[in-house]
Amino acid sequence: MTKQGPRPRRTNADLVESGHRGYFPGMPFIIDQTICRTDNVAVLVHDPASGETIAIDAPDAEAIAARLRERGWRLTAILNTHRHHDHVAGNAALKAATGCTIVGPAGEAEAIPAIDGAVGEGDTIAFGGTTIDVLETPGHTMGHIVYRIPSENLAFVGDVMFSLGCGRIVEGAAEAMWGSLAKLAALPRETIVYCGHDNTADNGRFAVTVEPHNIDLAARVAEVAALRRKGLPTTPTTIGQEQATNPFLRAGKRRLRRAIGMEDAEPAAVFAELRRRKDAFA
Ligand code: ZN
Ligand code: FE
């Protein structure tokens, strides 16, 4: 089902509130986040109309199965973003238990346990009367993909982007990772973003060293601290919020480049320097 007309404008407080309830006004899906392993986020998206439920990545079969039982949902598909163990560990057990279909990145399909279908850029997956688009986002791993539901302005970005941070460059070059982040940054500002890890508080400690005078960042760091005190997840975020606060998405912005003394550098070079600094950050 494709929605017509303007979307309601959401404030950040609306985002936080809706994120915790797992329901956004006007959206037909219910979204559930379970933190597993250390800070992996298991994201379930349920469509009450069709009864379908998808998991974006499967960090922990037990935790996801327990959550499905609590919710009374039947898992119909797992959509893997990349081949790292903390994202595919639950694939085989969940498939055995539920008979779900497993979809994963064509670029590293051989490393995705129990995969049924491999997808790449431009491929689509039917879900709950709408369509999930696949975006190739190399850098963290070279095969990494992102799943996006344009009709609902939703994106599931795995380990490419985190709130206030981004994934480590495990296989790719900085240029590839920057290209992938720029691709996400170009999505509509109101896109609601679910990430593979809830590590926002750690990311914020580094981000404020890069842009100590960014007031949007300072406000976000305070918000994240408050959420953590209440034991609540710090995601989802939005593309607009990350554009204002995430140093890795801001590598092309003059204010950030000036803040780190790289005013004349290319965005990809600024990004590479930020990633290097973060890797060395205690
Ligand atoms: Zn990973
Ligand atoms: Fe991961």
Blueprint of the fold:
Elements: H1 12-21, E1 30-36, E2 40-46, E3 53-56, H2 61-71, E4 77-79, H3 85-88, H4 91-98, E5 101-105, E6 117-119, E7 124-127, E8 130-136, E9 145-149, E10 154-156, E11 161-162, E12 165-166, H5 174-185, E13 192-194, H6 200-210, H7 215-229, E14 237-238, H8 239-245, H9 254-259, H10 267-280
Parallel strand pairs: 3-4, 4-5, 5-6, 10-13
Antiparallel strand pairs: 1-2, 2-3, 7-8, 8-9, 9-10, 11-12, 13-14
The structure holds zinc ion and fe (iii) ion.
Strand content range? 15-25%
Shape: globular
Distance between the termini: 47 Å
Strand line-up of the largest beta sheet: 1-2-3-4-5-6
Q: What's the CATH C level?
A: Alpha Beta
- Number of β-strand runs: 14
Bound molecules: zinc ion, fe (iii) ion
Largest sheet: 6 strands, mixed
Proportion of helical residues: 25-40%
Superfamily at the CATH H level? Answer: Ribonuclease Z/Hydroxyacylglutathione hydrolase-like
Stated plainly, the CATH topology is called: Metallo-beta-lactamase, Chain A
What letter string, H or E per element, gives the SSE order?
Answer: HEEEHEHHEEEEEEEEHEHHEHHH
Structural class: alpha/beta
- CATH architect. name: 4-Layer Sandwich
